[in-house]
Specification:
Elements (H helix, E strand, L loop, with lengths): L10 H13 L5 H11 L2 H17 L13 H6 L3 H8 L7 E5 L5 H6 L8 E6 L2 H13 L5 E5 L12 E4 L19 H6 L6 E6 L13 E7 L2 E8 L8 E6 L3 E4 L14 E5 L1 H5 L3 H8 L2 E2 L7 E3 L8 E11 L2 H10 L2 E8 L6 H8 L5 E10 L2 E9 L2
Parallel strand pairs: 1-2, 1-4, 2-3, 4-5, 6-8, 14-15
Antiparallel strand pairs: 5-7, 6-7, 8-9, 10-12, 10-13, 11-12, 13-16, 15-16
Helix pairs in contact: 1-2, 1-3, 2-3
Length: 387
Amino acid sequence: MNDDPTVLLAPAGADALARVAELRGGRGELAVASALRREFPPELAAAAMAQAELRETAAAKFSRAGEMLFTRAGYEQSSGEAIARHRAARFDGAARIADLCCGIGGDLSELAAERGSVREIMAVDLDPVHARLALHNAGAAGATGVRAVVSDVRDVPLDTFDAVFIDPARRSGDRRFRAGVCEPPLDWCYHLAERVPAVCVKAAPGLPAEMIPPGWEAEFIADGRDLKEAVLWSPALARGSRRATVLPAAAALTAVPGDPVPVSEAGEYLLDPSPAVTRAGLVEDLARTLGGWKIDERIAFIALDEPAVTPFGRTLRVLHSAPWNEKRFAARLRELGVGAADLRRRGLAGDVDAIRRRLKLSGPNRATIVLTRAADRPWGLVCEDLD
């Protein structure tokens, strides 16, 4: 696959991309590639084919994917459009923003959007390919007042900027974005707040709490049930210390002071909190807002007497609750006619697939089987989704 899609920025590149779209209508990939190579130079044909595939994949993140250009690495590290838009809203009022480690410009387009003030955005990336793509993608979104700088972000003067957003990259050689392992290092990112007070740092969602500086807000963002990332806001932008945000509703949960949440037996309903809530350490805070309690001191389930409709968790109706015993639960599941089940294990060891096989589920009904702990004992619950 061609790693430099900037060849597609020329008029011939636009023609090749348009031709791929035409040819893909009813042909297989090999036939499309063969036809394209007869009309365009091999390098251009390969780049157009690779870009068509990336655009198709990127449609899950970007509504304008068909007009944007990507690299595989740039797409994989970029935030989705909804998250970038949510994050950019907190920069309202800033006239000049620096987007450091801008990548393919997923955040740049949203930062440059008009929000009641004239903006100048400087996009900085060490990779000249990503810098060019960032400008192109911002233009595809209609953004103006954007310029790109190819540089190490540590060498860029920031004294005239009101705000900084930085998405530090995984270090060269790392196969995955491990929490706290990035380039430039998180400590350097935090010190940006000494130069420009309004700073936002994108981080991995598994970032340990001890790596968050005092006075900074840690926001954990989920899209539906999927935890996507952590965002760290400097004291000038912070609105508390911890926040769980669930998109697309943009629902936000912050700390709710109060007495410790009681621990007792499961109720008629069980709420499984969003991973954004658990990572933010706000399970008890959510329980206070819902009038619920915990079934175990260390387990992130909330018990309820009434059903709750909330973006911060999935509510299940409890059909059976008892100490976990595989044979007894298998018999109870047969009585309930459960032939399909979603097994959720939290705080209890065991191979979920092996347990599912041994339960020998059979019947017309579907259930959620929760394998967990209650009162520090292995516990099981058979539940049904309220939907």
